[in-house]
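Researcher: Here's a chain I'd like modeled. Treat it as a single chain, no partners, no ligands.
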Amino acid sequence: MTASPRTDADPPRPRARSILREGRFVLLWCGTTASGLATWALPFVLGLAVLDRTLTAAGLGIVLATRTAGFLLAVPISGVLADRYPRRAVVFWAGLAAALATPFIALGLGRSVPLMAVAAAVVGAGQGACRPAFQALTAEVVDPGRRQQGNAAITLAVRVTTLVAPAGTALLAAVVDTWWLLVGTGTLWLAAALLPPRGLPAPAADVRRPRLLEEFGEGVREARRHPWFLAGLGALAAVIFTGYSATGVALPLVSRDRYGTEAVLAAALTAYTLGALAGALLVARWKPRAQGWTALAGLALYGFAPLGLLLPVHPVVVFTGYALAGLGIELFNVPWFTATQREVEPRLLARVSSLDFLVSYGLAPVGLAFLAPAIDAFGPRPVLAVCALVCFLAPAAAALVPGSRGFSRHERA
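Model: Modeled as a single isolated chain. Structure tokens:
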């Protein structure tokens, strides 16, 4: 007996009613927001620990590296588990694991970096397990006609968090010890575990349960059935490898060496977040006919970020480039997630989503590690020029692939 495919159990709801007035979606929205806030807060709080000398810079690097390793190891496994068992259950156990591991990071602070590293790996695994499960659970909770609005609301919450949370955390740090701030991130993970609503029941169990690797391979084969998905994922990976790395490595150097102040770094990142907020608000309502091409054009806007760092221009040009990059990344993200939820076979959705996160997030640290030596060897201008060129050309190449116009395998030629 084979696993039966998941189907959308609920009929489409009236589109006039706001998605934020639906109780089940609000619970899901709160859970995903809590997980995003906990994910963002950990490196920031650990940075505060470096400032008060309870953690060394080397220790910070080790802890964050193990968290990333835990994330990358958990993503493909959790994608299989979220297709095998109820998505809500995977979110619960992943969030609970991260919540229980976080206090051990606090216990190791100033005492044991190995303890912090092991606990951070568990937290990263919880984070990695949540991502594909949340993606698939969203498709179960939100009816097809409003998934773009729902995805936009979720990404909007993440962007608001990254904008206001630094000031809030800094204010809390003035009255609360770093130890308690770390424990607070564990509380956020507990909220992420408990708040989301139930989705659809798990599919019927297969008498001969295949191995995890075989099941993940089935997700890869499903992804290969959608040429637009592979092309878009390749373009996204190229932009992250180059444009995102330029943000992480080149922007601080340019801010310090060209402009002589860290204010340019802070303002550029703020402009990026404000642009992303504008993009999420825009795409929540706007549904262009050629949605895939519009999304890929938005992704190409990321090229203006490294392009603005290329020449000695006024800082406003840099800020504008980063605002465009933020706007474009949300013009891509929301339709991308919505199309994946629509086009991929429901019983394989978590596995395909895990492939998405594995490739995109997995290349981010590789790009960061590659760009710094490249700048040392060739200088910043050639490297930034290549980064900008890749950001412009990779989405353009993806737009030539069949199905990319509307992010659909079934669209007419």
